[in-house]
Amino acid sequence: MKMKFDFQKRNFWDDFKNNNTKMERILYYIIAGLISIIILVTIVASIAKLFTKNKNQLISDPLPTEIESLNKKNGEEMAAFTGISTIRATTLSSPSSSDSPSILIITPWFSYPADDTEFYEELSRKRTLITSILTYYFSSKTKDEIIALPEETIKSALLTEINGNLSLGKLNQLYFTDFIFFE
Question: What is the model's pLDDT at position 164?
Fold first, then answer.
C-alpha cells in the first residue's frame, strides 16, 4: 500500500476547527488555559520574589561547629560559647493592631578568644544574666519592631549590653542558630 502525503499549504486554525470534534476542541482550550495560568503564576511569583528578596531576613549564621572556618577567616583562634540554651521570649502585642503577643525562639552562641579560659568561666557563671539580657531585649519589643530592625543592629545592641556586664573580656560576635517566631 502506497502512502500519499498532502504537501499543500494548510491553515492550522481552519484544520483545527474543521477536523476536531467539539469535545477535542474543549479539551485543547482547557489545556491551553492551564498552561496560561501556570505561566502567569510563575511570572507573578518571580516578580514578588524580586521585591521581597532579603527583606527582613536574618543572614544565615554559621553553626558553632563551623568555628574553625571562622578562625581561618579572622586569623585568630576563636572558640564557640554555646552555654546559652534555647530561649523563648514573648514579644509585646502591637498597639496598632489586634495582634496577640508572639513567641520568639532563639538559640544564641558567641565567639570569644580560644585561649582565654578565665573568660570562658565568667561566661559560664553569668549564663543566667546573659539569658536574662537576651530575653528582656526581645520581650520589650513587638514582633513588628524586631522584624523592622536590621540584624546587625539587634546583634550590636545585645553585644553592647552583654559586654557591659562582663569584666574579664569581651565577646567578639553573636550568632543565632535559631530565630523563629510562633504566633
Answer: 94
pLDDT, mean over the chain? 80
SS3 labels along 21-39: CHHHHHHHHHHHHHHHHHH
Round to whole Å and give the CA distance between 60 and 177.
Answer: 8
3-state helix, strand, coil in the chain (%, to 5): 50, 15, 35
Residues 179, 87 contacting (CB under 8 angstroms): no
Phi, psi for 26 (deg, rounded to 5): -60, -45
For residue 174, which phi and psi values (nearest 5 degrees)? -115, 135
Q: What are phi and psi of 35, to 5 degrees?
A: -65, -40
Backbone angles phi and psi of 92, in degrees to 5: -70, 155
Spatial neighbors of 108 by CB under 8 A, at least 6 apart, are 84, 87, 134, 174, 175, 176, 177
DSSP per-residue codes, 138-164: HHTSBHHHHHHS-HHHHHHHHHHHHHT
The answer to whether residue 44 scores a pLDDT higher than 60 is yes
**Cβ-count burial of 15 within 10 angstroms (0-12 exposed, 13-18 middle, 19+ buried)?**
exposed
pTM over 0.85: no
Instruction: Please compute the mean of the pLDDT values over residues 131-152 and round it to a whole number.
Output: 90
> Which 3 state secondary structure label does DSSP give 152?
helix
Give CA–CA dist 59/28, Å, rounded.
47
Residue in the structure block whose three cell numbers are 489545556: 31
